[in-house]
Amino acid sequence: MASALYSVIQTDLKTGNVVTALPVTGITFSHTLNAAGAASVGIPLFAPEANPNSLIPGVSGLVILRDGIPVWGGILWTLAANIEGGTLTLNASGYHSHYQGRNFVNGWAAKSLEQANILKAWFAYFNADNGIATDTSLVTSTGHVRTTVWTRYELKNAADAIEELADNIGGFNFRYVPYWVTAGKKVGHRFVISSRTGTAPAHSLTHRANCNVTQVSYDSTALCTVAYAVGADKGNGEKLVGIFENPSLAARMPERVMVGAYQDVKETLTLLDKAQATINAGAVPVAIPELTLYPDTFSPLDFVPGDYTAVEVDAGYVALYDEFVVTECATTVDANGGESIKLALASKELWSNANPS
After folding, report:
1. Closest to 240 (Cα-Cα) out of 228, 250, 230, 226
2. pLDDT at site 350
3. 166, CA 20 to 30 Å: which among 22, 138, 286, 306?
4. Which residues contact 331 (CB under 8 A, 6 or more apart)?
5. How many CA atoms lie within 13 Å of 301's alpha carbon, on the beta-carbon side?
6. What SS3 state is found at 342?
7. pLDDT 10s digits, 293-329
């Protein structure tokens, strides 16, 4: 695979219209599972494109192109000027960061509705009120219904609502995908969901063959024999509680309790689902590999967070041949255009257990 050509464009955040192409000195960007992801772009401090009347934190959008195709998009939030070094660093977060600043100021009530329809209604609500035109045309039915009820006094945060809806038994993975509406002129972005069960591995990664596994961590902090999910106040000083246990794990280890607080959950069934997800997520210790892909072998779009990849490592204590969930794909492009891609992974068994279909 030949080296890819990267470029960065500045956009109007509300419309997606291209403002200008930016001269870059370096790029880093990450796609993170069920989160905003981040990007950092360096440009010359004295370049005419470094225009304080146009390039404005919170107002401007940034889109990263790989061989002319949008691979990352989001919102410029901060800038740092290195006067001595003559560089300006642009720091951005993905489109999900917009919804971290949006709230259901009028409350919301959806009872026993397909969760895909709930998502579409939420985005339509925020798009209609000075939003960023998130497209939901690719969101399809999941076969799971949910109840979401908040009063206007709760001022429920939109990003939290999306993440909590996703993080349920029968939930979903989500991401925001930039695309050309009109090539070279206008960029849009789509909200896309997929099953928490993931897909069959498209790639097999072997240490010292097509990747370098730099670290493997083993973590048992999530192990849990009893889980409590505490919900909303019933109005008499008592709170709703969902409880789930793992007797097979309790037979092998001392009792370990996890308590989760979900103050806006008003249904016991939902709390039971959350307690079960906690139990399932804490059923086994977790192996967490981190690796760097060999140059010019893969594209960052080859590894979508939430999908699976097979990893093989034989290095002393570490003897792995298993499938893992991609939790983050981070790409760095240096001043010479060299591309380096790092993956963070999580146990497939853990992910599947925590979120069965």
Report:
1. 230
2. 62
3. 286
4. 27, 28, 29, 30, 300, 339, 340, 341, 342
5. 13
6. strand
7. 999 899 999 999 988 999 999 888 888 888 898 999 9
Block means of pLDDT (10 residues each) for the chain, 357 residues, are 87 97 97 97 96 97 98 98 96 98 96 96 97 97 93 96 90 96 98 85 90 91 94 86 95 95 86 88 84 94 91 88 91 93 83 48
Half-sphere exposure at residue 229, Cβ-oriented, CA atoms within 13 angstroms: 22
The one-letter amino acid code at 187 reads: V
CA distance 265 to 234: 11
Q: What's the Cα-to-Cα distance from 331 to each of 56, 71, 152, 208, 259, rounded to whole Å?
A: 24, 11, 41, 19, 36
Bridge partners for 242 per DSSP: 229
Q: What is the pLDDT of residue 2?
A: 61
Task: Kindly report the number of other CB atoms within 10 A of residue 345's CB atom.
Answer: 25
In sequence order, what E strands does the chain have?
A: 6-12, 18-22, 26-32, 38-44, 60-66, 69-82, 87-94, 108-114, 145-150, 172-182, 186-195, 204-206, 211-219, 226-233, 239-245, 257-261, 286-293, 308-315, 318-333, 339-347
Residue 227: which of 272, 265, 273, 258 has the closest Cα? 258
How many CA atoms within 13 Å lie on the side-chain side of 5?
Answer: 3
